[in-house]
Amino acid sequence: MAKSVKLENVTKTFTDDQGKSTHAVDHINLHIKEGQFTTLLGPSGCGKTTTLRMIAGFEDLSEGNIFFGDENVKQIPANKRDCTMVFQSYALFPHMTVYDNICYGLRLKKLSKQEIDKRVTPIMDIMNLHVNANRMPNKLSGGQQQRVALARALVMEPGVLLFDEPLSNLDAKLRVTMRDEIRRIQKKLGITAVYVTHDQSEAMSLSDQIVVMNAGKIEQVGTPMEIYQQPTSKFVSDFIGTANFLDGKVESTTNEKLTVQTKDSKLDVYQENAIEFKEGQSVSIVVRPEAIIIDEQGTEKAKVTKSVFMGHIQEYEVDYSGVSLYAIVADPGGKQTYSAGDEVSVRFSQAVVACSACFMIERGGYRERESLCLYTNDAYFIFLSGARS
Ligand SMILES: Nc1ncnc2c1ncn2[C@@H]1O[C@H](COP(=O)(O)OP(=O)(O)OP(=O)(O)O)[C@@H](O)[C@H]1O
Fold first, then answer.
1. How far is CA 216 from CA 51, 96, 237, 286, in A?
2. Nearest residue (CA) to ligand 1, atom 11
3. Closest ligand 1 atom, CA of 46?
4. Most buried among 41, 78, 125, 383, using CB within 10 Å?
């Protein structure tokens, strides 16, 4: 039965031979609901794998507690915990057939042949593995081997299923197929899943909840949309998706907007708590590439420095007051395109609401937040209002 997972003040400190300590995981707290798909995402060395290994019981905790449901599993060894791990390297037994690999854990549990068949057959059905049942792992492709590894984990019916970068050895196309398959099966069986990756698109497409980690700490927890649209730190806004940064100083504020003086322009930014900013305060405006619109309605002058047709999108780099901005235009077919060297006008939203260049879009009579946010240089972060007004 699917179990929730709770991490309470979890810390892992490694000490090397010289006595130097590294906080691989630094006092993290996290709640994963039962049946939820949670991804630990972050740059190399941020502590994702160590966190996963502590959940699995492969690594002792230096501090804190881990609960599966109501049970504190801190003292429970890995082989007695109600979880299974799918590894990057598949970790199949090379001398066993596919069927025997999948049954291995159940045989260790001394289940009867009937009981084993009852569990294994539906999983092999779901994963389309019957045709390979009697083959040896080395006769299978990487994708097929990973499917066997997943089936072997699923038949154990674990309370928590753990994935350690399971798709990184597969080619790009197969990765997409396999991640869709993992998500479909996880949803169908209602399993609690914790998945480690440094691949954003994998995290975005698989997860109910993304945990962004940085230097052993949790930067933000949220749905893929929250993480992308409402990042709570510069690190998250930069790490997830692509972000352009425009630095400036707050010139004035009202209840609903702030006017920011950037190097050469004044930009109005609509924000619920605009009034909390102070005049003269240094801020950076974070603009997502899709929020930059290049057309004749734009009021800001820029020069195209790079233009690349990618089929489904056109990518641009534009020089805007000495700042290089990365912009994308979706579905460029039939739209006017620009080339390097072209002088263009840009704006930063789908519709200009009140003034020269604001960052709200207007739909159906109310304003929605555009993919843009603000944080101040002392890291106090405030994002644009998503509320209707
Ligand atoms: N057994 C160990 N002994 C000493 N330091 C370790 C050990 N395992 C991990 N670390 C250190 O702990 C930190 C976190 O490592 P971890 O493998 O958890 O990061 P990660 O986010 O999973 O990275 P990657 O994406 O590269 O796998 C790193 O600085 C790493 O060097």
1. 9, 39, 18, 25
2. 24
3. 21
4. 41
